[in-house]
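Posting for a labmate who doesn't have an account.
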Amino acid sequence: MNIEIGRVKVVDILLFTKHLSVTLKSGLPLMDGLEILKDQAKGKMRRVIGLLLETVKDGEPFNVALSEFPKYFSQVYLNLVKAGEFSGTLVESLERLSIDLKKRHDFKNKVRSAMIYPVMVLIAVTGLGMSIAIFVLPKILPLFTSLNVDLPFSTRILIFVAEVFEQHGIAIFIGSIVAVILLTFFLKRKFMKPIIHWFLLKLPVVGPIIKNLNLENFTRTLGLMLESGLTIDESLKIVGESMGNFIYKRSVLGLIAVVRSGDSLMVGMERHASIFPTIVSKMISVGEKTGTLEGNLKYLGIFYEEEVDETVKNLSIIIEPALLIFIGMLVGFVALSILGPIYQITGNLK
């Protein structure tokens, strides 16, 4: 049975996991730990913990209680808790989860912070452009159309844009909103995922970030699953289902058949060399041969996490020049379109 309560923030799940690991580490039983966390929690998270506590009191394992909230606790989370319960290492599993959740939460905040400036600039430029097209140009350009001179090409384009917005401005505005809604609805359809995710991987700047992010998720999560005691094929199934990109998800799930047939992970990865770099397949192969697979996966997870962090830090530096060039071209085009005819008229008067 899946219980729907409403939106619970990721940070609430992070704090719940971290605090529960601390209470269990201090020697308290699971039910006492949940009681304490329930008293401290607020809002919807308080109700979630209360329902978890009721299920545990009924004699169900903790992982079964968590499985009633698939919207908040992923398959990775459930399987790590399940492995921890059966092996007597629940505290260690919760600590690993809290570290992993914190890193993912911090990464999302970094991306959000890096994108604030470019997004604000784009909104400002779009608003300025719309304001000029709707309110300013219709008042200035009739002067140019009344003059008996050959207008520059840029000015003729500006006059055309101004006339279109003056005659159909409301229709364009409403049509743009409808188009965005329809496009969003269409892009969210399941059959579009493979195309969109493939396209995103091919984009400059964005593609490498998505690729490194998926590699970080793959290596780190697979390492966590193997450390918890799960077999390689069970781990790959959980990791595959947790992948955000469809191309990576399909490829990781395809590795299960490769492993079950007796081949190494490297063999399966080499069939998808475009999304699994040589360093990943080679280090995994070495780990399989030397018995250090979990350690190598952890190292690769850290490596790709640092790669993503570095790219995200420089994201605004990468985007800022492109935005400045775009704004400069836009301002230059408008200035040339307006000043060109003026200079032409003054030249004729001389």
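Reply:
Got it, the structure tokens are right above this. The chain has a mean pLDDT of 83.
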